[in-house]
Amino acid sequence: MVILLFILNFTYHSVSLSGDLSAFSEDELIYQDAPYDSYAQGNELYGLYLTWDRDNLYIGLSYRVQNNAVLLILDPGRNRGVSDINNLDWYPRNFQFYGMKADILCALWNADISTGGVREIMAKDRTQPLSGVEVINNGISGDSSSLMLKIPFSVLYGTDHIPSGVTLKLVALIAGSDHTTGKDAIPDNENLGSSSAIRTFIEIPLDRNMDSIPDDSVRIKDIMKVITYPKKALRLSEFGISPTKLGEGMPLTVSFKATDYSFAKVYIVSENGRRVYERHFESLTPDATYTFTWSPKGDLAGGIYFVVIDVGDIIRGKKAFFLKK
Ligand SMILES: [Ca+2]
Ligand SMILES: [Ca+2]
Ligand SMILES: [Ca+2]
Question: What pTM, to 2 d.p., does this model score?
Answer without folding.
Answer: 0.82
